[in-house]
Design brief:
Number of strands: 14
Radius of gyration: 20 Å
Number of helices: 11
Structural class: alpha/beta
Strand order of the largest sheet: 1-4-3-2-5-9
Helix content: 25-40%
Low-confidence stretches: 1-7
Number of domains: 2
CATH topology of the largest domain: Nucleotidyltransferase, domain 5
CATH superfamily of the largest domain: ATPase, nucleotide binding domain
Length: about 325
């Protein structure tokens, strides 16, 4: 089902960006002005299992509908900017692979969109876009150096250095979820052992809770899922922990421990002013963040730990959209 609504009428002198955030379950689109105001927006299902051609056709149709809703022609946009999960080769403008989009291997997404609409079109990783969005819209003085970790089904990341998004040599830097924390740890979705994503993501929390319950651990989680242990999710674990469930609290503490090690590594390498934790796991608040802050206080270089802020994200699910728009406006 498509969801969209018009926010306000566009001023004639504005040349907004049409920003698109492509996820495994939904595609969010918005027309965003140079002042950061949302003119029109819509959400539609990705239906990723249908494969790249079907998803791309859905994106093209969505763009057409959104332009019509905003009473705009493509030539009235300054750009179209696409943020998607996966490894982006910015030199060739390819989505080389994406864990959330089956069958996406070396897909020339930017070229397909640019060819149809004949306006500047940009492509970047969704977590990079989210980092840019959080940096730009953060209240008060923008931090010069910021690291974003998005914790959901997996773990993504973005790095801002000297006020600019760091993309690396191929445009695919900051796969922070795939730093190795424990070489003997569980197998990650990427095929390697002991990545941060395999130890501290929402999927990791759910997997660990299910494993403990199946080994005989007593927990309110069993009742919460009506005995269907396979239905335990990170959100379920969070709810149980808030109610004082010991097993659920231990699982979150374990994830926070590994996340804390990852954050310590990042702080010791980059000496950032701010580490932002986003994604659905950020809803755990201090249940997750306080152990991370304690780990940083104990293990990071004292000068770094005393000056860094570790905070939850502010923009929620809109971070990627706003970041994609900013990326285009800064080109």
């Amino acid at each position: 089902m498509i969801k969209w609504y018009l926010i306000r009428e566009i001023k004639k002198q504005e040349r907004p960006v049409l920003a698109i955030d492509i996820g495994g379950t939904k595609i969010a689109m918005a027309i965003i002005s140079e002042q950061g105001e949302v003119i029109a927006r819509q959400t539609l299902p990705t239906l990723a299992s249908e494969g790249p051609p079907a998803v791309i056709e859905r994106i093209l149709s969505g763009i057409d509908r959104l332009l019509k809703a905003g009473n705009l022609r493509p030539s009235q946009l300054s750009a179209i900017s696409l943020a998607t999960a996966g490894v982006i080769d910015i030199r060739k403008n390819l989505v080389t692979t994406s864990p959330n989009l089956p069958g996406w291997h070396n897909v020339p997404l930017r070229g397909i969109i640019a060819e149809k609409y004949r306006i500047p079109t940009y492509l970047l990783n969704d977590a990079d876009a989210a980092a840019l969005g959080e940096h730009h819209f953060r209240a008060g003085r923008r931090p010069n150096t910021l690291i974003l970790l998005t914790l959901g089904t997996g773990i993504g990341g973005g790095i801002i250095i000297d006020g600019r998004l760091y993309l690396g040599s191929t445009g695919s830097a900051a796969e922070l979820g795939h730093m190795v924390i424990d070489v003997n740890g569980p197998v990650c979705a990427c095929g390697r052992n002991g990545c941060l994503e395999a130890l501290a993501s929402g999927s990791a929390v759910a997997r660990e809770a299910i494993s403990r319950v199946r080994r005989g651990g007593l927990s309110a989680l069993i009742k919460m899922v009506d005995g269907k242990i396979e239905n335990i999710t990170a959100e379920t674990v969070h709810l149980a922990a808030k109610e004082g469930d010991e097993l659920a609290s231990e699982v979150i503490n374990q994830a926070a421990y590994y996340l804390g090690i990852g954050v310590v590594n990042l702080i010791n390498i980059f000496n950032p002013e701010m580490v932002v934790i986003g994604g659905s796991m950020a809803d755990m608040g201090d249940l997750l963040l306080q152990p991370v802050r304690q780990m940083v206080a104990e293990r990071a270089f004292p000068l770094y730990s005393q000056t860094v802020q570790i905070v939850p994200a502010q923009l929620g699910n809109d971070a990627g959209l706003f970041g994609a728009a900013i990326f285009a406006l800064e080109q």
